[in-house]
Amino acid sequence: MTHRLSLSTLPHLAENVQRPAVDPRDLGTGLVHLGVGAFHRAHQAVYTEDAMAAGGETRWGIHAVTQRSPRVAEQLAPQDGLYGVLTKGLDDAGSPTAQLRIVGAVREISFPGEQTAAVLSRLAHPATHVVTLTVTEKGYRRSGTGLDLDDDGVRADVAALADELGGRAVDRAAGSPIGMLARGLARRARQDATPITVVTCDNIVHNGAMLTGLVQEFLAAAGADDVADWVHDHVTFPSTMVDRIVPATTDADRAEAEALAGLTDAGLVVAEPFRQWVIEDAFAGPRPAWERAGATLTSDVAPFEDAKLRILNGSHSYLAYRGAVLGHRTIAEAVTDPVLGEEVRAFIDEDVIPTLTPPPGVDLADYRDSVLGRFENPALGHTTIQVAMDGSQKLPVRLLGTARDRLAQAAVPHRAARAVAAWMVFVARAAEGRNGLELDDPLAPTLAEAAADGGRLGERLLGIREIFPAELAEDDRFRSAVLTQVTELSD
Ligand SMILES: NC(=O)c1ccc[n+]([C@@H]2O[C@H](COP(=O)([O-])OP(=O)(O)OC[C@H]3O[C@@H](n4cnc5c(N)ncnc54)[C@H](O)[C@@H]3O)[C@@H](O)[C@H]2O)c1
Ligand SMILES: O=P(O)(O)OC[C@@H](O)[C@@H](O)[C@H](O)[C@H](O)CO
């Protein structure tokens, strides 16, 4: 029988597998992460471990918090927080390569449904200096440009904080990431009150400013004016650009890693070799020396963020929607389809790059080539369906800013309109369950209702204001370009 990865079985790990860069037993907890999905384990946790190793520090062990389900806690807790990152790339001859490293930076793990009290204590603890988040676009529970105060989880958290501030001690399970964070900050304000930094690592435009706004809206709704003032003065929310392609782990990946390690690993994640992290240098207190692990600290993240969200994520979504409808299972298959490959390149060249300011030292044509080259990695198996999910949340971030900026330049964004139309055709096919496609989106009922009006698919979807702001949807140039493309792609 193969043993499971844990601190006690670590000595049995196969020789050619990289051990944790720091001894997990030596680590204190200094960082709380909300939303411990695949991406955090392959990105921020790796940077944090490498930063500790480079700087000889031990205080940045991670308290990782799952969100809606205890699944990741159940995977990691029996393994003492240890898990593998299986890096899949290609060598110079184009043959697949796979390298496995074990990460030991995650030292505690909680599921809010049962351990909200432990998370709130950690958020308030004086040794905690940084909070990071990856809760997906929809996890922020936004409605329009602000917090959705009608969301059940947010409402329950607002009530819980109001009760707590009124002296009615409550440890009710957190119902939303913003509620969890704001309740933790409120407790910190009343206890030790040392400053803290909150770093959102989700693919959202101006993510730091977005998160500050949501936290302040939450505190206003709970009548927590003193806490709001404290947060304003003691908490910073740097913006970040995060990049590493991390697909959902499959059973085949786990079997491959087990063969390499000689141990089973339920918490395994898979990633490409490339990784990048650009962080606004606006910390309220101590932080891991992430720059020693390759991160870039800068005063202005915006050019990096715009280039990444519009070139990489915009093309990813383009390939996902067009590719899924054309029967391509993976992004690698879609980008190497000669027609789609050309289309996505033209989208970047004609519509995206003209809207961007190159980040310092970056040539945008080189960046485009490196992104498209990364998509071609067949070993990753990143499915078009995974990238296609939650389109209602992703379109504004990845495609609509490009369209808006092209219109402001007096240009008709035909290529961006085609990408939006590709999403619309995908929605129609997925709503009908054609070709095995499914509509996985928080707005699925609204989208399916619009799609049921087959002859007016484009008009109906453009009418959804949570996705398309009026000034864009009612711009005749954009509208007509999208409707033309919907007709073309529906054939
Ligand atoms: N995977 C990547 O390649 C990648 C790369 C860059 C950035 N990101 C960012 O990280 C995010 C997470 O990616 P992942 O690969 O870890 O996904 P994942 O599905 O493995 O994990 C998602 C996490 O978000 C939580 N979550 C999802 N919906 C939620 C909701 N409605 N409310 C509260 N929590 C919710 C989940 O519980 C889980 O903890 C992405 O959405 C993106 O913003 C991912
Ligand atoms: O993770 P999602 O679902 O928000 O988006 C899917 C991908 O486009 C995305 O995760 C990219 O792989 C990532 O942004 C690369 O850094």
From TrEMBL:
Residue ranges of every copy of the Mannitol dehydrogenase C-terminal domain listed in the record: 300-489
GO MF term list: oxidoreductase activity
Gene3D superfamilies with a match to the protein in the record: N-(1-d-carboxylethyl)-l-norvaline Dehydrogenase, domain 2, NAD(P)-binding Rossmann-like Domain
Superkingdom, taxonomy of origin: Bacteria
Catalytic activity annotation: D-mannitol 1-phosphate + NAD(+) = beta-D-fructose 6-phosphate + NADH + H(+)
InterPro entries the record matches: 6-PGluconate_DH-like_C_sf (IPR008927), 6PGD_dom2 (IPR013328), Mannitol_DH (IPR000669), Mannitol_DH/Oxidoreductase (IPR050988), Mannitol_DH_C (IPR013118), Mannitol_DH_CS (IPR023027), Mannitol_DH_N (IPR013131), NAD(P)-bd_dom_sf (IPR036291)
EC number: 1.1.1.17
Enzyme class, UniProt record, top EC level: oxidoreductase
Keywords: NAD, Oxidoreductase
Domain Mannitol dehydrogenase N-terminal stretches: 31-291
Similarity section: Belongs to the mannitol dehydrogenase family.
Protein name, as recorded: Mannitol-1-phosphate 5-dehydrogenase
Organism for this UniProt entry: Georgenia deserti
